[in-house]
Design goal:
Length: 174
């Protein structure tokens, strides 16, 4: 994604990857917590100027770096703020790659304990050979088990997936 690459390269040139990571985390949190912000970046009702002014105010209030504030302003002017979640994801990936890390997404039926997170991180680190950044989410529809995504690989040991496989195999038999 062009915006993510441009932001990353600017931050890298100015040795400001740490502040960029903080900005990404802050924006992720703001998007998760604020329905108004999610509406602002996706709704076609607002004019470019309204969106630009609002996102500039949000960036200033959050204390975001100049690089990120500038990118948000440009995205607002180009009507591309709807892509912000994907840009943040791409930035996290670029930073992790730069640091020799891999992001692993783990979805479970219930919140994981610290010990479970540590055990999963250790197993994945041994398998992948890189430092693992664990991102966990809860999806109660899994019933039990885990869904783990590391790069393009996915391991689905959820009970929901096992029941679906059983249902398919029973259809083939009968």
């Amino acid at each position: 994604m062009r915006y993510a690459t441009a932001i990353f390269e600017l931050a890298k040139e100015t040795n400001s990857l740490k502040p960029l990571e903080a900005d990404i985390a802050a924006l992720d949190g703001a998007l998760a917590d604020s329905a108004d912000l999610r509406n602002l970046i996706t709704s076609p009702v607002y004019t470019r100027d309204q969106v630009s002014a609002a996102i500039t105010a949000v960036g200033a209030k959050m204390g975001l770096s100049q690089t990120v504030k500038g990118a948000l302003g440009l995205m607002a002017q180009k009507r591309r703020l709807f892509a912000l979640p994907q840009v943040l994801r791409a930035l996290r990936s670029l930073i992790a790659k730069e640091k020799g890390e891999v992001e692993a997404e783990v979805t479970s039926a219930q919140p994981l304990t610290r010990e479970q997170e540590t055990e999963i991180t250790d197993v994945l680190k041994a398998r992948v050979g890189k430092k693992i950044n664990l991102k966990t989410t809860v999806d109660e529809t899994l019933i039990g088990g885990l869904v783990i995504k590391v790069g393009s690989h996915m391991i689905d040991s959820s009970i929901r997936a096992q029941l679906a496989a059983l249902k398919n195999s029973m259809k083939e038999v009968g």
